[in-house]
Amino acid sequence: MARKSRKNIAVSETTEINTPVCIRTVQYIRLSVEDSSNKGNSIENQKLILDDFIAQHPDMQCVGVYIDNGTTGTNFNRPEFQKLTADIEAGKIDCVVVKDLSRLGRNSIDTGFYIERYFPEHNIRFIAVNDNYDTADPKANNGLMLYLKNIINEAYALDIGKKIKTQRKQAMREGQYVAARAIYGYIKDPNDKHKLIVNPDTAPIVKMIFESYAGGNTKRSICNKLINSGIPAPGSYDYKGVLKNTVSKAWTSRSLEHILTREIYTGKLVQGRTAKCNHKRVNQTSDKWITVDGTHEAIISQELFDKAQQRIVKAKEDHRTKLTDAYTENIFKGKIVCGCCGRSMIRIRQRRITTKDRYIFLCVSNQVKSNTCDAGKIYEDEIFDVILTVLSTQIDILVDNKNKLYDLLYDKSRIAEQNKELQRLKAYISQNRNYLSTLYENLVNNIITAEEYKDLREVYAQKISDAVHSANDIENKQNRLKREYDKFCETENMVSALLKDENFTKKLIDALIDKITVYSDNRIEIKYTFDNEFNTEVWNNE
Q1: Phi, psi of 359 (to 5 degrees)
Q2: What is the mean pLDDT of residues 261-283?
Q3: Apex CA 156: angle with CA 155 and CA 162, to 5°?
Q4: What is the CATH number of domain 186-321?
């Protein structure tokens, strides 16, 4: 009876320890753009409702708040919701509380999946306060009503989306500027965010760009002039058109072309150039653009704009009609770095008339901003020559190392000695296991004391562990030698094939080369992916 009583006590204690003290509850709050005008759905109001609900339930403890501000409810690709699911799968949450079902989502299928499948599978209690929905209370949950509410929420989102698009297009037709950011050269009117006024700081820059390009200067020369003059690029301005405190963006040919192709600088609004299709932003054909004349002050004349467009069109036609060699694959992509600044080097094609085009690697720092890095440069064919030179002079060493490894791997005396040692260790392990198995019998028969039993058990267990470790080391060493030999064989085959036909491929470069560092004094350093005597060879590129 005493024995039975001890069992009952143990069960009682275990049950008490495993009983949860509180329900770890989190709040999920979502506010979309279309909901921003509804004060009832504001972030502050949602939090007040959820705080009040949790306060009325003493068994709940709020352990986190997840807020997705300005995100749509039609899909679940939201930063805070993804963080919420990650914490659920990490076992940090017991309950999720929202203001209503529409805050979780407005997509009926996906919302139903999370409520009916995902949350139950992860033992998560889900509560929608204003909808009186609680997965812990089956009586309050009506499956049909839940489905209908999700359908209504989805339809509401689609309807709101259509209304916003319609209102936006109507605003464009009325000559209102609807973009979130003021285009470079203008700022938003402080009294009317849908109207542009000339920025006296940047408008002269826009005019200079159009005049220089229409006058025959290249985009690259114009960029260099702007950079050398210390003029901040368009990315240095905020959405209102005001210069930021931190100027980090540089002028590029792309940012220049973005300015040169915008007719907005002639005093007319041209909007609707892009549209969303299957959640992706795509360009619209010019017949779908919405153009309104005389909406703001012009920076350039229509004549100057048209002249710049004629040159852009001619440059594109010349590029299409010119016969050029097809681009070859950049098999060194991501492997060549600058020895000065450590940044990647980009591959640029140098066009030639009488011979094949040639490729050169230049530091990306000097392409983004001129003369910022004392970097070197190297032609792609020079890299090929260096690799071939290094490998041809070291192939004998590679073969010799492979043969030495083979002799070591299949040395009969060494293998016999290993097998002998393995047999000894196995016998030693078996012997100590027998000793270990008899210890308990000796304890029961009072041959040894409990203290002696404990000490001897640790001694024998340690002997067994050490012997098993030694045996594993022997077997692992043999396996490592086999892997190294196979690696040498594979490397030798690749190098031999390369030296024979000099056919470089990306697969071959990935297998042989880890990194190539180019220095300004015509040195290049090649780091190989395999370990041997020429792992890091430094060659002069002269």
Answers
A1: -110, 140
A2: 74
A3: 90
A4: 3.90.1750.20
